[in-house]
Amino acid sequence: MTIQTMFFDFFKIALFTLGGGYAILPVMHNHFVKKKKLISENEFQEFLSVVQGLPGSLAANCATLIGYKLYGVFGSIIAVLGSIMPSFITITLISIFFSQISSVTVVAKFFLGIRPAVVALILYFGIGMMRKTRWNIIKGIMLVFFLCMFIFLNINPIMMILLGIFSGLLYTAWIIRKGKA
Amino acid sequence: MIPLIQNEVVLKMNWLSPFEFLDAIAFAQLTPGPIALNVATYAGHQTGGIFGGVVATAGVVMPSFMISLALAVLFSRVRGHMAYQNVLEIIKLVAIALIVSTAILLWPNSIIDSRGILIFAASFLLFNLERFNPALIIILAGFAGLIVYA
């Protein structure tokens, strides 16, 4: 794949994926992992984990990581440009030409159909990630804990990621000490 | 992120009226791409023309781009280290929890009646077949919406 192809891949994905950041991740996964096999399953899961904790748009951040992996720093710039160009162009056109579009009921009905599909896509993707995980009791308990934090307490994801980093390091330190004893 | 933009653009700087800001959000949802990015492009364009749109877009993208890039470089250094692997295993669980909880939290506003459930079930089935491009299925769901809500 050339760098131009990569640019147009991101461009197309961003152009045709309606429904926001969480809808675009599965589409990127489908393209770069399943179809083109340029990114391994593990790497993509790593990217996913990282972008959750970052400020800014999921899609652009994920594009940065994929672009860097494929073509280094220059690749990451091209990837971000590809993934933000479609929205930039459409929004600019809309603010020039169609300032009445929001009242069109046809568009509203179209989105009544899109939203349930986006929920289904996100759920399908989350279940897919669960299937790829090697589970044990501790991991199961942790997942339920994180779920409760997000659903019931509306905790900022960054707090949970910091907690994850902290407990991961603690666990590593414990293993190393056990190894020495 | 939207409330922060609203605070800056509408309340502090008076670049957009509250009414124009609502328009901006409506457009942002109708168009491909992240909502915050689209709102910023719209606000920039209304305030400073095409150039304003470019500057606003760059302003929104730059911080996260630089952080992502720094992390990407950092990861290529520490990958393979035991601590990194252990931390990643846990962060993955956070990511799964975040994705699943997003779906659950979106549910009440996205699936408003039995027709919504029908579209949800049909598209969930299609995603699981893994035979069609997910982006295509979403667009098809839009047309299904046009039909069932006609």
Walk me through the topology.
The complex is a heterodimer of chains A (181) and B (150).
Chain A lengths: L2 H14 L4 H15 L5 H12 L5 H40 L7 H27 L5 H16 L4 H24 L1
Helix pairs in contact in A: 1-2, 1-4, 3-4
Chain B lengths: L1 H11 L5 H13 L4 H44 L3 H29 L3 H16 L4 H15 L2
Helix pairs in contact in B: 2-3, 5-6
Description:
Chain A has helices at residues 3-16, 21-35, 41-52, 58-97, 105-131, 137-152, 157-180. Chain A is globular. Chain A has 181 residues and is mostly helical. Chain A has two domains: 3-133, no CATH class; 135-181. The mean pLDDT of chain A is 86. With 150 residues, chain B is an all-alpha fold. Chain B folds into three domains: 1-78, no CATH class; 80-109; 111-150. Chain B has six helices and no strands. In chain B, helix 2 crosses helix 3 (35-78) and helix 5 runs antiparallel to helix 6 (134-148). The mean pLDDT of chain B is 84.
Tell me, briefly, the overall form of chain A: globular
Number of separate strands of chain A? 0
**End-to-end separation of chain B:** 34 Å
In this structure, how is the largest beta sheet of chain B organized? none
Provide a count of the helices of chain B: 6
Rg of chain B from C-alpha positions?
20 Å
The arrangement of helices and strands of chain A along the chain is HHHHHHH
Average of pLDDT of chain A:
86
Global outline of chain B:
flat
- What radius of gyration of chain A results from the CA coordinates? 20 Å
Structural class assignment of chain A:
mainly alpha
Order of helices and strands of chain B: HHHHHH
Number of strands of chain B: 0
Proportion of residues in extended strands of chain B: under 5%
Residue runs with pLDDT of under 50 for 5 or more positions of chain A:
none
Largest sheet entry of chain A: none
